[in-house]
């Protein structure tokens, strides 16, 4: 009985260690950005993600973009001080990337948003209403997921359309 | 449905290799060193093949630009064990690099030897890294690559046509080699359109295809008086 209990204890310890280890890899954004609050103030998606209508990528806000409104203290949130610190040091906010396509996949925000008229929601969920930055992608972008939507919307499902 | 094809006028071609340079820049083709080159491991999506025309003593050394023929019945597709290479609806023979296992059956099967294998991890001098084309993926070590008729340009042309709310015109889409040719020896367009330049030229008396007897039906047509 005793060896079994010792084994169980070690097993549980290792399990806890891995769970802890795993969760520490969950990317935490440098600023606890509240999409909902910004959205309520009438800030549009394109104000911070400036390129999604013109480019393949959507872009993340630079420190200067934040400072346009947050130059004077608007809130008492400690993160506002953080942004000021970034600006003082001449640094950009080190946003962490959540959505990543493999190298051989060509994805264009412009093609999906500006040309096909899709909403941000379709891939990013109801991000505009979230109060905390997401820690993982809203959807796992598997090829099946992409192709299902392409079939439904009668978009180009040719291999070369994405694998350029 | 379009059927894209190319016409190369050998009587106009001066063998300047601008098409090769343009292709290298457009498609992020890796630069390979002299030793590796001596082993025949260079990658070219379009290459100038030397040949001798006429009979001695009236001979003429000529060069023949050779991109992928995008055959109607390609030998490469039949031999691919993983379905990495295929012909799309518009007749462009494409490769899905992530599927390629690097067996090189296709490089052997292709009668025009247009396919190249990536023996090395692609590398560029530091100065060139910033000027790589973002529309074309970088092929890793161990996959086969070849000319795609600059398919990414077709996608862009479609985008542009959609924004301008019109149908795609034949002139909208033109590969880098054709665009760069300084002596106007290359033409590109829709072979299904009987009035397009390529269609008209392909019916000319001077027109011929490479290794026509194999039945691959290439979509690259050559024009020459001498042959």
Describe what this molecule looks like in 3D:
The complex is a heterodimer of chains A (164) and B (227). Chain A is mainly alpha-helical. Chain A has one domain (2-60, 95-162). Chain A has nine helices and no strands. Chain A has helices at 2-24, 35-40, 45-48, 63-70, 78-88, 109-115, 121-124, 143-152, 159-162. In chain A, helix 4 (63-70) packs across helix 5 (78-88). The termini of chain A are far apart. In chain B, strand 2 and strand 3 (60-66) form a beta hairpin. Chain B has one domain: Alpha-Beta Plaits (2-Layer Sandwich). Chain B has helices at residues 18-26, 34-38, 75-79, 105-109, 126-129, 151-163, 176-180, 197-202; strands at 4-9, 47-53, 60-66, 85-87, 93-95, 116-117, 144-145, 186-190, 207-208, 220-223. The model of chain B has no long low-confidence stretch (mean pLDDT 93). Chain B contains eight helices and ten strands. In chain B, the strands form four sheets. In chain B, strands 8-1-10-9 form a four-stranded mixed beta sheet. Chain B has 227 residues and is α+β, with helices and mostly antiparallel strands. The chains are: A mainly alpha (164), B alpha+beta (227).
What are its keywords?
heterodimer, A: 0% strand, flat, B: alpha+beta, Alpha-Beta Plaits, four-stranded mixed sheet, 10 strands, globular
**Oligomer class:** heterodimer
Major sheet of chain B: size, sense and barrel closure?
4 strands, mixed
CA-CA gap between termini of chain A: 61 Å
* Number of separate strands of chain A: 0
Residue fraction in strands of chain B: 15-25%
SSE string of chain B, helices as H and strands as E: EHHEEHEEHEHEHHEHEE
Q: What characteristic shape of chain B results from the CA principal axes?
A: globular
What amount of the residues of chain A lies in strands? under 5%
Following the backbone from N to C, one meets helices and strands of chain A in this order, namely HHHHHHHHH
Tell me the number of helical segments of chain A per DSSP (H or I, 4 or more residues long): 9
Q: Mind telling me the C-alpha Rg of chain A?
A: 21 Å
Alpha plus pi helix count of chain B: 8
Report the sheet with the most strands of chain A, covering strand number, pairing sense and barrel closure: none
Q: CATH class of chain B, please? A: Alpha Beta
